[in-house]
């Protein structure tokens, strides 16, 4: 066993140090991480055990020799999105309670900025990184795997990257979208617009083409679209490509797409919006068409906000557990920094469905061009 | 002159280095800052001049010996406020164009977190700091002056601190609030609620007591209240303390305060809201009272958003130049990092008044308890 260890030595875990010192794992983690209270006697035992086993995490090396870091780096795609602002709040609450500060970089959904952001955080010697990556399905993510290889733990947030062997904290996007579309269908709707789908300049006229486009999308957007399609399938409603927006994702394009869908010979009678800007864009189109919700068209959107509650009528919305997402991502990362091993890779948190007054049955058939 | 210099030596400026090297100030700044293009010949001349004069900025020391930092730190009170998210975008756009990355910390309006945040940024060796301080009028700001004393340039954002000798980039809060109140008055209103004023548990029954409370408030909040009072004074309307909210600043308290003001024997007929949460809180109270805007009560709020434009009717709002605020603060800080001297301390940018449909004349006198 000792010989094995010499040949392919792997660093001892925090649990092995704890066992050697005869203390609990949490106490060992606290001492080695340099945060929280540890009695001098306990501290001495843990440090002696760590030295005997050759334990050296980054955190230990930093806190004991090259200076304490105690900082988490967070990379979000767009800090202007209230969703990410809420998640960052959750991360910093949990980090702070465990003695870590949080620094944030925003990439504006650009992969080049994301690569630069990782460089900055590694350069600033953060102890770990939480990232909501701007990478689409087709993009290489060497900058993320390279960071892990350099010994900086990474947790993925909001957007899983399926071929990576990393812990991911996400919401039940697919289930939430399915439930929203299902509510429309239960109310009698069969022409349901989806704002927004995958941005693509390729023609999307079949389910197969849609699926191909989706595989090059953000993971979370793809999941929401799949949930929408699940609900249609369950109800035996055939997919109509004209009802899924494939333009670039901006509020203005959402307005144009919804206006177009409201003007079809068989117009949409319900709209599922996958972002705040998609929702406000859709509302602009509804108003500009001289229509009213929910009588002429029903609406459900991601993500809930104070504004959605004070609209008249108030909007039925999907609320993602932003704080909890942030809390969980920070916990997983901090446990890993403390030397724990990740066992569960995918952590899926439940969204809340907030029913207000923007969903009713479809209007009687109306002729749009009298 | 040389003797004078020896006795009280002050570091040479970037302009002196440029003159010595016979190059433009921008070229010298680029070379010494280590960003952008400089030909080898130009670079050599600038560095020789810098050495001769003993020029050593932090940026130079870092880029030439201890490694390049090229990072700005930004401390905002609440990254969940879309206003700050927009400002951060402006900061990072300008920084990026000049070769700097931006890292952000959010303090949740808590001074202790702000002090910790400054410690983190100094520890991470940022080249300068932009801060929207959570300090109230009564708070000591040694953590800010101490940072400047250690040679890290600081620019104040959104909230001036009047006794500090630092560049501040703010909006015309007082003028914007005055203009909003004036529009109400021009439409015939005389009972105008202000949500929110200074949070205080002291009784506020006189103008003097209000003024005392305001001096312990955030600078920007105080300015908005002063603008509201300016408009009342100009119109000869006497101040009524019952029309200024002094509870802690939350959406829920805004709802309670507006409900109370709508229920006064002489109720308010217009509401000026100084934050997004104040605006949504006010709208909840209006709806709960069975009233409609603008027919029963007129509304104007800070800050504009997509949601305000899709409300029915759309809201008249004040839009602060968020991107421009961020751009300007970054420019000033980067110029200072490059060795420039600040001459102008207060930079006040203009807000935009966006008139939509939430302001009309006051309703005919109504009996609120029939």
Automatic annotation (TrEMBL), chains A, B:
<keyword id="KW-0805">Transcription regulation</keyword>
<dbReference type="InterPro" id="IPR000843">
    <property type="entry name" value="HTH_LacI"/>
</dbReference>
<keyword id="KW-0678">Repressor</keyword>
<dbReference type="Pfam" id="PF00532">
    <property type="entry name" value="Peripla_BP_1"/>
</dbReference>
<dbReference type="Pfam" id="PF00356">
    <property type="entry name" value="LacI"/>
</dbReference>
<dbReference type="GO" id="GO:0003677">
    <property type="term" value="F:DNA binding"/>
</dbReference>
<dbReference type="InterPro" id="IPR001761">
    <property type="entry name" value="Peripla_BP/Lac1_sug-bd_dom"/>
</dbReference>
<feature type="domain" description="HTH lacI-type">
    <location>
        <begin position="12"/>
        <end position="66"/>
    </location>
</feature>
<keyword id="KW-0804">Transcription</keyword>
<protein>
    <submittedName>
        <fullName>LacI family DNA-binding transcriptional regulator</fullName>
    </submittedName>
</protein>
<dbReference type="InterPro" id="IPR010982">
    <property type="entry name" value="Lambda_DNA-bd_dom_sf"/>
</dbReference>
<keyword id="KW-0238">DNA-binding</keyword>
<dbReference type="InterPro" id="IPR028082">
    <property type="entry name" value="Peripla_BP_I"/>
</dbReference>
């Amino acid at each position: 066993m000792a010989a094995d260890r010499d040949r392919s030595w792997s660093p001892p875990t925090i649990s092995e140090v704890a066992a050697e010192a005869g203390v609990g794992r949490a106490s060992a983690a606290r001492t080695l991480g340099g945060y929280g209270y540890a009695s001098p006697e306990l501290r001495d035992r843990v440090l002696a055990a760590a030295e005997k086993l050759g334990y050296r995490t980054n955190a230990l090396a930093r806190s004991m020799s090259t200076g304490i870091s105690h900082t988490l780096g967070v990379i979000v795609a767009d800090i202007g999105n209230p969703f990410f602002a809420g998640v960052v709040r959750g991360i910093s609450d949990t980090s702070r309670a465990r003695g870590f500060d949080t620094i944030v970089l925003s990439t504006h959904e650009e992969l080049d900025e994301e690569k630069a952001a990782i460089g900055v955080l590694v350069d600033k010697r953060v102890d770990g990184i939480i990232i909501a990556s701007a990478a689409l399905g087709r993009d290489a993510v060497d900058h993320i795997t390279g960071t892990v290889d350099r010994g900086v733990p990474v947790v993925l947030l909001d957007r899983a990257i399926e071929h990576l062997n990393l812990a991911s904290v996400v919401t039940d996007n697919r289930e939430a979208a399915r439930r929203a579309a299902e509510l429309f269908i239960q109310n009698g709707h069969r022409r349901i617009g989806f704002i927004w789908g995958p941005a693509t300049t390729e023609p999307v006229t079949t389910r197969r083409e849609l699926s191909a486009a989706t595989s090059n999308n953000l993971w979370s957007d793809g999941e929401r679209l799949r949930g929408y399609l699940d609900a249609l399938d369950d109800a035996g409603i055939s997919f109509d490509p004209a009802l899924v927006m494939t333009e670039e994702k901006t509020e203005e394009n959402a307005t144009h797409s919804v206006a177009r869908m409201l003007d079809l010979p068989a117009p949409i009678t319900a709209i599922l919006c996958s972002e705040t800007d998609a929702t406000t864009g859709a509302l602009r189109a509804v108003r500009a068409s001289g229509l009213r919700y929910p009588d002429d068209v029903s609406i459900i959107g991601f993500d809930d906000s104070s504004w959605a509650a004070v609209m008249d009528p108030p909007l039925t919305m999907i609320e993602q557990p932003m704080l909890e997402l942030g809390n969980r991502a920070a916990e997983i990362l901090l446990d890993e920094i403390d030397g724990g091993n990740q066992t569960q890779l995918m952590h899926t948190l439940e969204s809340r469905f907030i029913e207000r007054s923007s969903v009713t049955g479809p209007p009687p058939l109306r002729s749009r061009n009298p």
